[in-house]
Amino acid sequence: MACAAQTLATRLPDLLLHASHIATTLAAGRHPQRRAGWGDTFWQYRPAQPGEPVNRIDWRQSARTARAHVRETEAEAAQTVLLWCDFSGSMQWRSGNTLPGKLDRAILLLLSMAALLLRNGERVLLLSPSGIVSLPPAPNALERLALGLCELAANSSPMDTALPPPALVPRRARLLLASDLLCPDTHIHDCLHQLAAHPARAYVLHVSDPAESTLPYTGRTEFCGLEHEPPLELPHVQSLRTDYAALVAARSQWLEQTTSHCGHTLAHHQTDQSPLPTLLALHAQMSQRV
C-alpha cells in the first residue's frame, strides 16, 4: 500500500486539475439550491479543523480534552459533507493498463464533488476509521482534502474496512461514500441502516471495473485475492458468464433496494466511462431539498 500511496501522490496534481475542470463544468450546467436546515436550538461539539476561525472554538469544552472543539448547531451540521474513501485492497485493482484503477477514479469523483460543494459554500470534511481527519496545511481547502486522502492511503492496509463506522458520522450530516462495495452484504446492510437511524444521509458511489461486470476471460483462469483470500482456479471460465451476469444483476438490484429503503442514494460508476454523467446525477441528488 505504501508503493500505491506514493504513486497516488505523484498523480495528485493531475487529479486535482481534472477535478477542478469537472467541477467547473458541473457548476456551469446546474445551480445549487440552498438546503433547508434544522433550528439553532440543538447543538453538538466537533473537533476544530485547521484554519478554523478562533471565535468558533469553544474554549471551555476544549479545556476538558486534548484538542480544540467547535460548538455547532444541527443546522450547521446539516451543511457538512463528509467524504469517505474505501482504501481496501480490491480498490487497487484494474483489469487493463489503459483503465484507471478504482481508487484513482474514486478519488477523482470525491475531489470533483468536493470542489463543487466548496464553491457552493458547504463545509467538506474527510472521515477516516478513527474519526474526522485533521487535514494537512495547503493553499486551499480542496488541496487539503487531496493531501488528506494521500495520507490516509499511505497509512492504510489491504484489510481496511470498506465502509465507515456510522457512529463517527455527525447527526444530520451528509456522507459521500466511494467504494467498490466488495464486502459482505451484511456489512453494507448494517452500515446503511445505522446511518439512517442516526440520522445521516449517505450518497454511495459504487465504483467498479468493467471486467467485474462482464467476466471477459476464457479458458483456465486463476483469480488471486487482493485481501488475503486464497486463489481460485476455474476451467472454462467463459461457461460461467451467463450465471455470473445474473448474480451481478441481482446484487445491483439488492444494492439499489437497500439504499433506497434506508433513504440514501446510490450511483454506479464504471471506470471505462466518463465521470461526468455520474457526477451530474449525484449533484442533482445532493442539490435537492430534504
Largest sheet descriptor = 6 strands, mixed
> How many domains comprise the coordinates?
1
Q: Bin the helical content.
A: 40-55%
Global morphology: globular
Radius of gyration: 20 Å
Give, in order, the helices and strands.
HEHEHEHEEHEHEHEEHEH
Strand content: 15-25%
Protein name: DUF58 domain-containing protein
InterPro entries: DUF58 (IPR002881), vWFA_dom_sf (IPR036465)
Domain DUF58: 44-251
Pfam families: DUF58
Keywords:
about 290 residues, alpha/beta, Rossmann fold, 6-stranded mixed β-sheet, two-stranded antiparallel ribbon, 10 strands, about 15% strand
Topology of this structure?
Elements: H1 2-29, E1 43-47, H2 59-62, E2 69-73, H3 74-78, E3 80-85, H4 102-119, E4 123-128, E5 131-132, H5 141-154, E6 174-179, H6 185-197, E7 201-208, H7 210-214, E8 221-223, E9 232-234, H8 241-261, E10 265-270, H9 275-287
Parallel strand pairs: 3-4, 3-6, 6-7, 7-10
Antiparallel strand pairs: 1-2, 4-5, 8-9
Describe the protein in words:
The chain is α/β, with parallel strands linked by helices. It has helices at residues 2-29, 59-62, 74-78, 102-119, 141-154, 185-197, 210-214, 241-261, 275-287, and strands spanning 43-47, 69-73, 80-85, 123-128, 131-132, 174-179, 201-208, 221-223, 232-234, 265-270. It has 9 helices and 10 strands. Helix 4 (102-119) packs antiparallel against helix 5. It has one domain (2-35, 79-287): Rossmann fold, CATH 3.40.50. The strands form 3 sheets. Strands 5-4-3-6-7-10 form a 6-stranded mixed sheet, sandwiched between helices. The longest helix is centred in the first third of the chain and has 28 residues, at 2-29. Strand 4 (123-128) and strand 5 form a beta hairpin. It is globular. This is DUF58 domain-containing protein. Residues 44-251 form the DUF58 domain. It comes from Acetobacter fabarum.
